[in-house]
Amino acid sequence: MRKILMLTASAAAIFVAACAPQGADTENETVTSEQAQPETAANTAAETETAAADNPLLAEWTGPYGGVPDFQSASLDDLVPALEAGMAQNLAEIDAITANPEPATFENTIVAMERSGDALGRVFSYWGIWSSNMSSPEFRAIQAEMAPRLSAFSSQITQNQELFARVRAVYEGEEMATLRPDQQRVVQLTYDGFARNGATLEGEAAERYAAINQRLAELHTAFSNNVLHDEENYVTYLSADQLSGLPQGFIDAAAAAATTRGREGEYAITNTRSSMDPFLTFSDERDLREQVWRNYYSRGDNGGEYDNNAIIMEILELRDERVELLGYDNYAQWRLEDRMAGNPENAMGLMVPVWQAAVGRIEEEVADMQALADERGDDITIQPWDYRYYAEKVRQARYELDSDEVKQYLQLDNLREGMFYVAGELFGFEFRALPEGEVSVWHPTVRVWEVTDRESGENIGLWYLDPYARQGKRSGAWANSFRSHTTFDGEENVLATNNSNFIEPAPGQPVLVSWDDATTFFHEFGHALHYLSSNVAYPTLNGGVRDYTEFQSQLLERWLMTDPVIENYLVHVETGEPIPQELIERIRAAANFNQGFSTGEYLASALMDMVYHTTPPEEIGDPDTFERETLAELGMPDEIVMRHRSPHFGHVFSGEGYSAGYYGYMWADVLTSDAAEAFEDAPGGYYDPEVAGRLVDYLFAPRNAIDPADAYRQFRGRDADPAALMRDRGFPVPEGMGDTE
């Protein structure tokens, strides 16, 4: 049941993330809302089984590898009936649990809940693809219709007082002390999922809580779809005389993107980060840089039907009202109560010193760029649309490091093989590409690999890769899974996915990516490895804690710069020669170059997120004005902008996965920096078998079966040192920071 509540959370609110999107690495968290499915309680499991026989979205997965989704048979026409039948079956399963005349036990209540909802879970595998990878106006209409109904379905479970009474009886009963630690954690997480999400409310308060969540489901969906509208409809088309400074590979890809949009002979700069970022970095056309910049950072903020500002305010008001019903002062207080940070004050206590250091570094970076612009006689004052362009010029001058030169050694296929090598050395995994057509995929460019244990040959699961941007696919990069590992009901293998938005090359051309994109590729693969390495027994334990789940993936980025990957996989696209050592040294020397920009744009968003969710909504007023005034109070440099401005901040307003939680990337970065030092100090470096063994045993395989703080202590022998983050970024360590002994 927990997995279904997680899935309905992502379905009811399409959560768009730079890393973890809707459905991606979703944490253990229950979404509730108004009951609005009066017919479902009367449906029986037998009736649903009959519906499943005729509906491919509900059908049991068949074929090799423990069964796989059949995307070729998936049709939007079947989606609403499948959701209705899946919800009916899940509610019938819950009714069977509450009707059990025996006293509540771990087996007849908690395990029975863990076992429920499989049919609906299968439907959500298709839903996730339609929402994130293959969106269309037809799907969005269904999404808008079903989001409040899915939220209502969730409420029928989380506000089921008989069910909660049985959960509480197990939680408070004598049997609890006799359970294994992982079983106790399942009980604890299940109880918290109810208690923290309205199950203790009664009467009008319970009804209002449910109604709020139903409305939030509608708003989250509308917010996401508005952003996607602006991504799809604000495309900049260039002519051949407007390509100055752009790398040839980017030009070829832009030409292909224009052709697919019916603009043969032109060049399309799409309104996504993967297109915007390289354009702003290399284009010599300052007016066009400004246009592309404004298109991108104005998503959701263009007035009219698709503007998100009013939606933001209603979301904030409803979230504040909802947690007040539970007795909390503000939304962030409620959200962080079960996170590693614990409360908003601790999160801000980490962010503010780093923000201050980043602002100081930004001032230095801008001074360097302005001096270079003056030296060139460009007669400009650095603006946000100039930052990437002049930073690249400074990088080239200071480190003789040309991003396009580096890209010649970063072929997507080679990077993938490098990731496979790392997975083999650390996790003992082996990847074998499946022949085309052996398993079903949702798009012709998706490829699939079998993952096995390289010693035993045992199947671990499958890994799907969807690498390219296209119409209807949301921007960013993310990981997901169609099936997670469990053992409580027979061992289940894993079906994991990675999704990127690289620009598809012209036929026969390799995909060359930037260093940042290569790092992101490794990062997202870290999420997939987290899925694939799971050794937990119960579905609930495959969830996570938001300010911890990014840690494992951030740590995996470090292996991109390890010697075996450099020597064997970073080879020149034309000559096949390994990347020269002197170029690697220049990359390493420049590792913290532009750190002010990258840290500052992220923290501006993270701080705004926390301020939004600790400020009474009546004091916010207009989000555009509030954003501008808050950033001014924080000392936001004029030359940068939030990584995600409020009207397109999908992490926070397309759902609740990262709401009051965007700080979590930095919290996880403390763990990452500290864990990296453990490897760097080990005799075998990043491939040290003893440290790697602890990494897998304590930080990857347990997923959420162990409290994250305890798991990290078992890996490191102590708590993480926040000073490691400052050292890692080349920032001065504030006095008093860093005493972990």
Beta-strand segment tally: 7
What value does the Rg take, in angstroms? 25 Å
Task: Please state the average pLDDT score.
Answer: 91
Q: What strand line-up does the widest sheet have? A: 3-4-5-7-6
- Our measurement of the CA-to-CA distance between the termini, rounded to an integer number of angstroms, reads 42 Å
Query: Major β-sheet, in short?
Result: 5 strands, mixed
Helix amount: 40-55%
Query: What sort of overall outline do the alpha carbons produce when their principal axes are compared?
Result: globular
Q: pLDDT under 50 segments (min length 5)?
A: 2-18, 20-43
Give the structural class. mainly alpha
The helix tally amounts to 29
Strand content: 5-15%
Question: Secondary structure elements and their pairing?
Answer:
Blueprint: H1 2-12, H2 45-54, H3 79-98, H4 106-115, H5 118-133, H6 137-158, H7 161-172, H8 181-195, H9 203-233, E1 236-238, H10 248-260, E2 267-269, H11 273-282, H12 286-297, H13 309-325, H14 331-336, H15 344-376, H16 387-399, H17 403-407, H18 412-427, E3 429-433, E4 447-453, E5 459-468, E6 478-483, E7 494-502, H19 515-532, H20 546-556, H21 563-569, H22 581-589, H23 595-612, H24 623-634, H25 650-653, H26 664-681, H27 689-700, H28 708-716, H29 723-729
Parallel strand pairs: 5-7
Antiparallel strand pairs: 1-2, 3-4, 4-5, 6-7
